[in-house]
Amino acid sequence: MKESTDRYQQWIVGIILTVAGILVALPFIWMVFSSFKPESEISSLVPTLFPKQFTLENFQNLFENMNFGLYLKNTIIIVLCSFVGLFLNAMAGYAFAKYQFKGKDKLFYLILATMMIPGQVTMIPVYLILNKMHLTNTMAGIVLPGLVGAFSIFLFRQFMTTIPDELLEAARLDGASELRLFMQVVLPISRPILAVQGILTFIAGWNSFLWPLIIANDENLYTLSVGLSLLKGQYGGNYALQMAGSTFMVVPIVIIFIIFQKHIIDGYTISGMK
User: What is the pTM of this model?
Assistant: First the structure.
């Protein structure tokens, strides 16, 4: 009797969660399908979920009339440079985890303290520094402030403290240099946290909006997020074009997250165990 009651409750909960999931996903699904509709179909009095007349004209307009190809190139450059920063964060995390040097703990606590400062507070000082270095309105000025991050260093440090010291010492006795030790021993062991940070780095680079908008006044340096904002301002009445731009921005992130969501959960779990 109890088993049947528990199974009944599980079915009830499953149905409720399924309905709630569909309701949450419905606007996103409608946005994706609407990006393949002509403007006349979106503006019709009777809305439709699936496109009656399938068209790629909206995406074609994005790249031909809205410079989305240039915005995509800039965004990819930012993402690739962010992965260089990911390597630097891994090196810093390894240093804090396995090396002993003067002021190590104080420096690490100082880095952690920066996590409590909102990014908006440091934007003005960073902008003034880059302006003194003549890096405003340049791709370098967009990329440099985001190369390293306290949260990423913290996650790498937490994970790398679990690597046995005996393994590192054995590699050193075999004649491995510190760089080779890091590249061929530490990084392969750190694949779970590298996967997590790689996904988060991609999402942050792909969605970069506020800093590129502040540091650059040249449209040739704008990212996809800034281009989407311009799209809403210039073509506010063209909902089909806006749906296409939003779909182009969101779908890659959703696909990446669906594929690697297990790594994200596992990575946070492993990092929090220490």
Answer: 0.82
